[in-house]
Amino acid sequence: MSTFYETIYILRPDLGDEQVEQAIAKYQNLLQEQGAEDIQIQNRGKRRLAYEIKKNRDGIYIQMNYTSPGNAIAPMERAMRLSEEVIRYMTIKQELPSEEKAESPAVPAPIPASA
Questions:
Q1: pTM metric for this prediction
Q2: What is the CATH number of the domain that holds 61?
């Protein structure tokens, strides 16, 4: 069963455009090999970090949204952990509202009249 995931990772700011594209392709291919589908990638560009990470004050943010079986995450995160170009990464499981919840809107409880 596939689940929706979002992975955000930060690349070193000194990487060139070609190196950034290679890194994106590397992790996208890793996910595809593990059975991930509907991979959407957004390059958020270079941004200032809230605090210094591995002596870097800036980083290139990349966001990936995809559907994947749960066992596809570990190999990708292992490759990121061993990579010199990735300074931070995080994967979260997306909680999408089910169709049942969307069809029946929540009705607030009536407020009792005070006497």
A1: 0.77
A2: 3.30.70.60
